Amino acid sequence: MFTPQGPTLRELAVQALSSVEHGYDLLAPKFDQTPFRTPDAILAPVTRALRALGPYRTGLDLCCGTGAGLGVLWEVCAERAVGVDFSAGMLDVARRGEPTASYVRADALALPFGPVFDLVVSFGAFGHFLPRQQAELFAQVHQVLRPGGQFVFPMPAPARPGSRGYWAMLGFDAVMRVRNALWRPPFVMYYRVFRFGDVRRELDRAGFDLELRSLPELGERPDGSPRCALVVATRRDAG
């Protein structure tokens, strides 16, 4: 549909009528040929920002998919890069792309790690979590970070009301809500549920200090605000 090598419309429809896990298993072989993969235009400025924030020894890519973020971790982590995802198909593709990383199949809401990471990153996965799940998600990230460790992710500015992007996301979310009301199993993917005010509140409750950093390479909106910011959430010391 997107490129000759990408998924067809029929394949995307089958995926959308599956569970999230099975849907991504089906999409995995062609995922990197879709716009859903985090583009290098975002990965590169995040990498530059992390170099300035580091150094780090160990890093985790949360909901790593086909491994786009693993390359970022290898650029900034001296010892170990780990990808975690609940789709076996996505992990198989990631292993072929970044064979030197480690991979674990697990639910992001039940991470099988202790406090062993200096850095956790995530790219484009938060629409798969409902607002009521954010507290548990951030608590899981908190528990796998060492004290002083950082949870870092890019967060685009919200689409302006009335803009083409605003109506596209509103329409997509509406379609998904109708689909999930009529069809089982549900496929959770909403573009408008991850709002900065809620995220800031839940990160604070989970035990993080929050900082926003601009990513100037991604440009500015007409009012001068950044099109995308980097959320840097640092785990507070227990004391």
The portion of residues forming beta strands comes to 15-25%
CATH level 1 class label of the largest domain: Alpha Beta
What integer is the average pLDDT? 90
Domains (count) = 2
Secondary structure: helix percent:
25-40%
Overall 3D form: globular
Order of helices and strands: HHHEHEHEEHEHHEE
**What is the CA–CA distance across the termini?**
53 Å
Count of separate DSSP helical elements: 8
Total beta strands: 7
Q: Which consecutive residue ranges, at least 5 long each, have pLDDT under 50?
A: none
Q: Which structural class should the secondary elements be placed in?
A: alpha/beta
Architecture per CATH nomenclature, i.e. the level-2 architecture of the largest domain: 3-Layer(aba) Sandwich
Organism: Streptomyces tabacisoli
EC number: 2.1.1.-
Keywords: Methyltransferase, Transferase
GO molecular function, one term: methyltransferase activity
